[in-house]
Predict the structure.
Amino acid sequence: MYISLAGYHWKHDENFCIERKDGYNGMQLLLIQARAKISVAGISYDILPNTAVLIDTSVPHCLYAAGEEYMDDWIRFQLSREERQELEALEIPFNVPVYLNFDDTLELLIKSACQMFDNENLDKKRIQHNLLMAMLLYLSGVGKKSRSERKIPYEAELRKLRKEIYDNPGIERTSPQIAKELNLSVGYLNKIYNELFGTSYMKDVFSSRMEYAQTLLLKSDKTVNEIAELCGYNSSEHFSRSFKKYSCMSPLQYRNNGGKQN
């Protein structure tokens, strides 16, 4: 896990508007410091100052000022499949705003991480990693408190389902199949899944496969055809198109570049 970019107190005028239709190749932690509007995975929210949003990789999102100067702090970071599973265990709320009241803990942690970018300390990568973990643990605690105040139907079943998706990304699981197993309609399954995780069921299936493919490309000598099959694709061409959309590189470019964009 490492921080790729960070910003502290970035300001824009009252007409600020940015649309990221394909999201980012990597996680993004936003701390919005002004009244604003945000749309994440197709769901819109009105935002109060000191609101955090942990946006998952490749999730579409848009940010808008709300008639006043916009300001935010942000961290973009990369993590491995194993680290992703650790985050899942923390039950951190993805893609949904978390209001932090008047607590400035997260702001101070982001500020410290930004300061480390220009620091010559030999251990700065490890320090940044620990600062990032502190942010995520903090957000996990706030999120658990928030969730304890509201009950989502089938939460235990959906958490088990999401774990299975990331543990076994190559297994075919369609929304109708899962809805039938849970005795739910497809529409209601998608609604409560999105409410709990801030992303769609099929988006999670796609992300789990792409993250697994990235791991195999970097840590094994399997061919693209073999990796496509392990990730649940019947066609290596379809797999390669999907991978390029997700990673902005072909599978072989990703392997040859060590997972880093040029």
User: Anything to note?
Assistant: Residues 2-148 form a domain with the Jelly Rolls fold (CATH 2.60.120.280). The longest strand covers residues 2-12. Residues 213 and 227 are 6 Å apart (CA to CA).
